[in-house]
Design a protein that fits this description.
The chain is mainly α and about 325 residues long. It is about 85% helix and about 0% strand. Helix 3 packs across helix 8, helix 4 packs parallel to helix 12 and helix 10 runs antiparallel to helix 11.
């Protein structure tokens, strides 16, 4: 059990580091070839923060471990809202812009409904997966089109300033890009192997390992970016990172894994994990709405989210692990 545990820890550390190298290298390379800063921010940085979930789930599905793939996606969504936003709001209340209430949160609520509909028959088929990927492609295209229409975009300005402040030669950017990608794949294989061995050793499903250990590990880039944005007072970026990651996980991560290997889904996923994910998304909408003034997630609401995360993991520990 010690070797698989060390493999999981090493895999997570290398995974997070390699994702950061991949994003830096890809952003620098795209900037050298004249890609607009807004597209770099929306496509490369957006994909990069969810690269750990995507690569781990794709490899898990290809190796016949769909429980890790699905648990990683939905577990990361639960972790993002309950743990990361909860911690972030406890540190500093998160101001909410109206666009979040008009666009991102309603989309995420609808996607929770779609996921429930697809899982109702106990599987994620390849047809279900292609529906998710087509929706993701359409949503990305629409978001990029909207962003390019808005010339005064904060994300694009931030990326442009970052690239100007840290210029790198093309060769160095491409080296980071290739190294990051190779290590992403290698560390994901190590992580999946260790997770499967631990699940078998403890006598639990790989779904539970995906919902807990792997979900937290692959969500570390979102935690780091949200805390960094909050320290700078950029609350909209902190919240946008989380909502964007959850949309990506629900559509692209599950879609890629399902397209590689159709996944049988136990009733506990629908009745426990997806139900909590949907409830947290609805609760987040209520917190963000701001019935008595401008919307924000205050410290008390952050504590509620964090309590939900602790309660969920305590429930898993008592019912699944028998602790």
């Amino acid at each position: 059990m010690l070797i698989p545990l060390l493999a999981v820890v090493a895999g997570l550390v290398i995974l997070v580091w390699s994702a950061d190298q991949f994003v830096d290298g890809a952003a620098g390379t795209a900037g050298h070839f004249g890609m607009p800063p807004l597209l770099i921010g929306m496509v490369i940085v957006g994909f990069g923060t969810s690269a750990p979930e995507m690569v781990v789930s794709a490899l898990a599905a290809s190796q016949g471990n769909p429980g890790i793939a699905l648990g990683n996606a939905y577990g990361s969504n639960i972790t993002n809202i309950a743990l990361i936003l909860g911690l972030t709001a406890l540190i500093s209340p998160i101001a909410v812009h109206s666009q979040v209430l008009r666009k991102e949160l309603p989309i995420l609520i609808l996607l929770c409904g779609l996921a429930s509909f697809q899982l109702w028959d106990g599987q994620v088929s390849r047809d279900d997966a292609w529906v998710l990927l087509l929706l993701f492609g359409g949503l990305m295209g629409w978001t990029i089109w909207q962003g390019l229409r808005n010339k005064a975009d904060g994300l694009g300005n931030e990326v442009a300033q970052e690239l100007a402040a840290h210029p790198r030669p093309l060769s160095k950017s491409m080296t980071r890009l290739i190294l990051g990608l190779l290590l992403l794949v290698a560390s994901s294989r190590l992580l999946v192997w260790g997770a499967v061995e631990i699940a078998q050793g403890l006598g639990v499903s790989d779904l539970v390992i995906g919902l807990t250990i792997i979900a937290v590990g692959t969500s570390l880039p979102e935690l780091a970016s949200s805390l960094a944005a909050t320290r700078k007072g950029e609350h909209d970026i902190a919240l946008g990172n989380i909502l964007g990651s959850n949309i990506f996980n629900t559509l692209a991560v599950v879609g890629i894994a399902g397209a590689i290997h159709p996944m049988a889904v136990g009733p506990e996923v629908l009745n426990r994990d997806l139900l909590l994910m949907t409830a947290l998304t609805l609760l987040l909408f209520v917190f963000c709405y701001g019935f008595r003034g401008p919307g924000r997630i205050n410290r008390f609401e952050g504590a509620i989210l964090l309590a939900c995360y602790i309660g969920y993991n305590s429930y898993l520990a008592t019912t699944v692990f028998g602790l």
